[in-house]
Amino acid sequence: MAHTQSLRSTDGKAGSSSLRALAIALAIVTSGLATACGPKYPACEGDTDCKQGEFCVNQLCQQCRTEADCGEGKQCNAGACEDIQGFCNDTSECGVGQDCIANRCQVAAAPVSQSEAPPAATGCQLDAVYFAFDSATLEPSARDAIAKNAQCARERAMGSVKVTGHTDPRGTEEYNLALGDRRARSVTQYMESLGAAKGGLSSASMGEEMSRGEEESGWAKDRRVEFNSN
């Protein structure tokens, strides 16, 4: 009888160990299945599925959503941060015969001979303001130009000023109309912050309708806001 009880005790311990081993194996398999069910990189369901510094865009891990996600001198193109060709902060960064205009190196305008020079303008002028690609953000140079225009409008006692946004030809017509509108509104809001009468300002958008550029040097001039006194 004692021998039989010993066997039963041994069998009970063996059975308990087997059950514990089976439970652990099931837990491992379940964990593995749960992991396998998640999206496989670079597929994603949220930013947490991507690497540090990446974003989940249309269920795919990418470097950027917008230009703001990239550093200075870079732009967001199809989810990747790419260098902006000809980007600059100062003319010294450009090649011979080029000027830094709206953060882009562009061919400097040829000097006008005295015989070709137009008659000197009397008083101040309302100068255009330029923007970076796909952006309505006012760069420091743009803010300076707007401040000068606001001062000029006061000096010449202009009753009203029309602000018109333009874009380069890239993008759909509808998108560019909206982008031109954002640029015009950005300028009018800044002019108002400088003390310009809100009732004396109006904004409009021409989108890409007046664009003339065929490459970056020309497109940079298309991306502008113009001022006209009524």
Describe this structure in words.
The protein has four helices and ten strands. With 230 residues, it is of the alpha+beta class. Residues 2-11 have low confidence and may be disordered. The chain has a four-stranded mixed beta sheet. It has a two-stranded antiparallel ribbon with strand order 1-2. Strands 3-4 form a two-stranded antiparallel ribbon.
Tally of DSSP helical segments: 4
Compute the CA-based radius of gyration: 32 Å
Mean pLDDT: 80
What kind of assembly state do the chains in view correspond to? Answer: single chain
Please report the distance between the alpha carbons of the first and last residues: 115 Å
Structural class: alpha+beta
Largest sheet: 4 strands, mixed
Query: Helices and strands, in N-to-C order?
Result: HEEEEEEEHEHEHE
> How many E strands?
10
Query: What is the 3D form?
Result: elongated
Main sheet: which strands, in order across?
7-10-8-9
Helix content: 25-40%
How much β-strand is present in the residues? Answer: 15-25%
Low-confidence stretches: 2-11
In short:
This protein has helices spanning 2-37, 140-155, 173-193, 216-222; strands at 55-57, 60-62, 74-77, 80-83, 98-101, 104-107, 129-130, 161-166, 201-207, 224-229. The chain has 230 residues and is α+β, with helices and mostly antiparallel strands.
